[in-house]
């Protein structure tokens, strides 16, 4: 027998063949973008290399080398694993085992990442019976070289052992579990092209089921079998090709296997695929919108096909349908068209189908043929359809039903109906904005806001939103709030003020849909003003009567106030799970309550002395609960000025008085910490003789202790003491606020007594999102209305040490801090400070401070 070729020569020859082939495939793909040719070409190249090596090693003729999984179906991405089965007629002897080990080593040594198994047909069938993943990989098996009879016999046995119904159920369960791993949404900020809902796996699962059930191996086979129409088949092929191109580009860009569209790669991939930034949108945002729209189509087609296949694999029992009207019937608890041409003959039935699902709680969804008919009919929604008064009335009825609105709006969005009926909504479908606090696409955010408003009306969620639930229960025609929510962000991405542009869209909708008078005025006003309440609550002092009076003048009456409050809470809660906290909730509720009192008192701002007297009286009432004398407050209060009583609530004044009434001139610092009685987090009071760098020292300490400052009231008494109050939220995840109280009190007293130098917060890594989508910091300093103080507003990327940098810069310029409103929106900080002193009175001094702050805020 001719001896085997030397190993080194063999490796060199096949490694060179592999490298040259892969280089040629890459160059060809980057030139023509033909994904199908690239996938098939790499598969054919690997076929040739593996078969050649196998022959060179002269394996016994009764063995078979088999491709399985994605390689088996002839699709190999640039960095995909190569899954192989070495099929044996029986147990191998020691010599064959050694030869096989040598063979696998050769595969790896020439540069192939191999996933392999060595089994007999009996072993394969036993493994497949107990593991759906192995069973799935084997149904795509393909003989590469070797014993054809052995492979054919094995494959016949595998097909005979398949239970189509069990396979279908297992793949559905597997898909449900996969969806849960990805939060059940295709709209993740960093989706997995292969595994996320709407990814390649959603298409592959369809073809696996059709192969396992003998219904076909391709989209063309499904068309021939009547499971998809020609239009649906073409749509499937376009969606699949889009995902294939993106995954190939990603592998080539990184020169390794990676299926996640991480922030790190989105911009580069967008540029490679021809997306160019505009004045209002990044290239990466356009890429991701294209991806999300494609993913939405894939999930829709996945639902239609699984229902179609399920009906074929599990024939439903004979049961007469329940007639609903001349167009629809109920079949097995699903809405069914009585005629698949019903939408073409009567286009208003498109919207009627969603209305019926709202009105009949026994209906669980739509039958496969209804979904297919709806998919075909979506193009009937044109200008003529939109102008039809019957369709406009149906669309408004969908908003006015007592149940099912959110489900049906999501279904309408999923099936492409909502975006066709409202083209301005269609423009923001799949649109992501990397503003560092929205984690949903604009369309998903809007539907989340509608969902939040709906939950205020539902008894089962009353424990989550008791105040909102009470308000909305007393609000007449609350469906108007849902319309306002639909339009509040509809103009995102156009450039300019999206609130003003959305206002025009809302006005046009109201005019065309017969919403008139005070109802139309409310909807349009809410869209224009939907950001106002959060801006006032988070950036201004809501304890200041003048702030409340100005806000009351904007809202005008209680109906507008309540509507704006409900929309604001729903909006903030719909941006990101990280943005909302109980402190923001308390600020909004406090502003709502103060404004309602203002409106009921006639709208005029109360005189400051009246407010002060009211708060002092209430504070004294609270102090009496602690059996303190009627004169207990006098020594402290005579050192406090009007500003103090205007900025602090009666409860805070009473707390400060209880802690300080017997030591207003104490030389030793006083620090008191307590659980925040109004919401989550801690309240900390610091009382000490004013000292240099005090605010910077406090900020650094709180940050090192793992707390964010969300509110600060800085006050200096008439006899030179600092009386500072802070609201802190834990950022470390310890969940041990109560245990931290004594630590904060002890450690701060020691630092303030020794007047230790300020300590900068510990450095922390920036998030990847912040790294790749940075915020350009902005700083503005403006005189307040009275001209005595200045309002410092800044926007920057939030990070540990941000507030410390601001504090040390203010101290360097001799500026005194009076209040701080710290608003953190995800990873975006929007902070407002009331400052005075230093050289702020001079334009040059303000410019120097602004410039230095901008430099400090850069990352």
Task: Draw up the topology in text.
Elements: H1 7-32, H2 35-57, E1 64-67, H3 69-72, E2 82-87, H4 94-109, E3 114-119, H5 121-130, H6 132-139, E4 142-146, H7 148-161, H8 164-181, H9 200-212, H10 219-224, H11 230-254, H12 263-272, H13 283-313, E5 322-323, E6 328-331, E7 334-337, H14 342-345, H15 349-359, H16 368-377, H17 383-387, H18 389-400, H19 405-414, H20 417-421, H21 423-426, H22 442-456, H23 466-473, H24 479-487, H25 498-512, H26 517-529, H27 532-539, H28 545-555, H29 558-573, H30 582-600, H31 608-624, H32 634-637, H33 642-647, H34 650-660, E8 670-675, E9 682-689, H35 694-704, E10 707-716, E11 721-730, H36 737-754, H37 768-772, E12 778-783, E13 790-797, H38 802-812, E14 815-825, E15 828-837, H39 843-857
Parallel strand pairs: 2-3
Antiparallel strand pairs: 1-2, 1-4, 5-6, 6-7, 8-9, 9-11, 10-11, 10-14, 12-13, 13-15, 14-15
General description of the model:
This is Bifunctional uridylyltransferase/uridylyl-removing enzyme. Residues 1-323 are annotated as: Uridylyltransferase. The protein is an alpha+beta fold and 859 residues long. It folds into six domains: 7-162, Beta Polymerase, domain 2, CATH 3.30.460; 164-315, Nucleotidyltransferases  domain 2 (Four Helix Bundle (Hemerythrin (Met), subunit A)), CATH 1.20.120; 318-413, Orthogonal Bundle (Hydrophobic Seed Protein), CATH 1.10.110; 422-600; 607-656; 657-857, Alpha-Beta Plaits, CATH 3.30.70.260. An eight-stranded antiparallel sheet has the order 8-9-11-10-14-15-13-12, sandwiched between helices. The chain has a four-stranded mixed sheet with strand order 3-2-1-4, sandwiched between helices. The protein has a three-stranded antiparallel sheet with strand order 5-6-7. Helix 13 packs antiparallel against helix 16. The model has no long low-confidence stretch (mean pLDDT 91).
